[in-house]
Design goal:
Length: 288
Amino acid sequence: MSSQPIIFDRKLIRARQQRAARLEPSGFLLDRVAEDFADRLAVVLRRFDVALDLGTPGDAIRLALAASGKVGTIVAADSVIVDEEALPFGNGTLDLVASGLALHSVNDLPGTLVQIRRALKPDGLFQAALFGGDTLTELREAFAVAETEIEGGISPRVAPFADIRDMGALLQRAGFALPVTDVDGVTVRYGSPVGLLHDLRRMGATNALVARRRTPLRRRTLARMLEVYAERFADADGRVRATFEIVWLSGWAPHESQQQPLAPGSARTRLADALGTAERSAGEKPGE
C-alpha cells in the first residue's frame, strides 16, 4: 500500500472536469501548452508509432500531436476515463506519453512517473506540463488574509503545486534518462478577481483538496478576499494579475543508443590544456 498522503479528492476532480466540459471551457492555458508542446516535438528527429495523451482536459494536445506529422496512433486517456495513478498499460507498449496540465493533481506523482516510464518502450519519450509552485500565489495570499481577518484562521484554498527544483530528481528516481525541466511563467490580467474565479471554474480547477473546508464560503470572507486581491495585485489601470507557473518535464526511457555520461577519470584532455593555462599543484602560488 502506498504511503503517499492523500492530498487531492480525485473523484471530485473528475466531477469538476465533467462540469467544466458542460460549461464554456476556458482553454487559453491549454492552447498555450499545446502550441509549446508542438514546438518542442518539432526538434525531435524521430517518429512515434503509439502516443498516449494522459489526463489532458480537452483535445488541444491531441490536435497538436496529430498536426505534428510525427505520431501514428493517438490514445486519449483523460482523468474521467483513466486514473493517472493506476495506468492500464503494459510495460513497453508506448512510444510517447504526453500530458498537459493534469499531473499536478495526482497524489503519488513519483509513482505515476514510474508507471509512465515502465509503459514506454526503450527510447520512448515522456513530456508533460503541469502547474508549478508559484501558480495562483495572489489568490492564496488574498484568501489567507481574508480568512484570518473574518474567521480567525485559514483553510486550504489553493493546491500546493510542484516545485521545479524537485522535478528533475523525481524524473531520475523514476528511471528516466536525459531528464530536463524548465518553467514558463504566465501572467494573466483580469478586470476583477471574479473573472479569475470564473476561469478556474471553467477550467475544472477549483478547490479539490481533501482538507478543504466543507462549509460554504462566507459572503463576508469572499468580499474581503476580493478587496485584498484588488488592493495588492492591481496594475495602474485597475486590472488585477494572476500568475500561472507552467513546469515542463521531459525524459526518455533508457536505451543503449542514448548519449551516456563519461566515467570519472576517463577524460583524455587536461582542463589546463583546453583552457590554455599552466597547471599548478594545490597550494602553489602564481610565479612560484
